[in-house]
């Protein structure tokens, strides 16, 4: 029998393990071995117990949008033969990678009202 508590796994992970285990048992693998293989497969595919999510899921929608916009600008510069590192550095830095102080300074330059009380994601949204 596999070691460890399975309560940290999501319902989807548990269903997947059950399905894999049944598949192994149909092929003649002993029940305890089938269960061990099933959980090993689930662990390999999803990294173990309950997870927060995949890549980029902790970013806000506005941060993702700002990153895409920044990436598009750099790609356009590259197509035109310009180096993305030349020229105005403010267009090259993703808003999401900037500190709150840097974002507040940018907001100050654009005279955005209420900037001093905004959180980072609010500043990014106001600037984009």
UniProtKB/TrEMBL annotation:
InterPro entries: Rho-like_N (IPR011112), Rho_N_sf (IPR036269). SMART domains: Rho_N. Residues 80-96 have a biased composition (Polar residues). SUPFAM superfamilies: Rho N-terminal domain-like (SSF68912). Residues 1-128 are annotated as: Disordered. Residues 94-128 form the Rho termination factor-like N-terminal domain. Pfam families: Rho_N. Residues 1-36, 64-73, 99-128 have a biased composition (Basic and acidic residues). This is Rho termination factor N-terminal domain-containing protein. It comes from Stutzerimonas tarimensis. The lineage of its organism: Bacteria, Pseudomonadati, Pseudomonadota, Gammaproteobacteria, Pseudomonadales.
